[in-house]
Specification:
221 residues; mainly alpha; three-stranded mixed sheet; 10 helices; 8% strand; binds zinc ion
């Protein structure tokens, strides 16, 4: 890891190093998630962030030939494109800074995957998955939750990892550390059961960063 050759490669391009972790063929969803997690972990390793809870997002912001600009007129959380001379990531200026962090990580995965053939159904979800793994690595989240480093609650965890509460909530669910919130109140005693109309209004209890993209992330900070 610390050979001169490694340092040379590291300085040359993280992007290149991350791209080489993906096989040159279309992958299944399971393979895509494995690659995304590996890329997220590698990026942390390359910048000595393996023990840092709150990922330093400047690592992406200071990548060579990459620029991040805030745009208050953006109709979505973010976008990325190649300008001809550099990559540009646009983030919605009106979003909460924690949501912007997730957006930047999400967009960076689009840039990593730029030259690959990806099942269009996976494209957005895998960017969310990468962002979740980068900002909330499984090993660190499980350790923080189980070893008492920080208070075992959503607010403390979200703060420690510098992510939104819905994002952390989703991740804790995904890692099996908390039980999912009930989808609606249908499990209540029939006498206390709200009407069908009221039920509909409870359908926002779970944050899901798989749809619609990063829409729900950071929205309740
Ligand atoms: Zn996207």
């Amino acid at each position: 890891m610390s050979s001169p050759k490694h340092h040379q490669l590291k300085n040359q391009s993280d992007l290149q190093a991350l791209r080489t972790l993906a096989p040159n063929r279309q992958l299944t969803w399971t393979e895509e998630t494995a690659v995304a997690a590996r890329q997220a972990n590698r990026l942390r390793q390359l910048h000595q962030q393996t023990r840092t809870l709150a990922f330093d997002i400047d690592i992406i912001a200071t990548q060579p030939r990459l620029r991040i600009d805030a745009d208050s007129y953006l109709s979505m959380a973010g976008s990325s494109h190649w300008t001809g001379s550099h990559w540009q990531i646009l983030v919605n200026e009106t979003d909460h800074p924690l949501r912007q962090r997730f957006t930047i990580a999400h967009e960076y995965k689009h840039i990593i995957d730029n030259r690959r053939q990806i099942n269009p159904d996976f494209e957005e979800r895998i960017c969310d998955y990468f962002a979740a793994n980068l900002l909330m690595p499984k090993r660190l989240v499980v350790a923080a939750w189980t070893q008492g480093q920080i208070e075992r609650n959503l607010v403390a965890m979200a703060k420690a990892f510098a992510v939104s509460r819905p994002a952390m909530n989703y991740r804790l669910n995904q890692l099996g550390l908390v039980s999912p919130l009930p989808r609606c109140r249908n499990t209540m005693h029939p006498a206390n059961r709200p009407s069908a109309f009221q039920n509909r209004s409870t359908h926002h209890t779970t944050a899901n960063y798989f749809e619609p993209s990063v829409e729900l992330l950071g929205s309740r900070q």
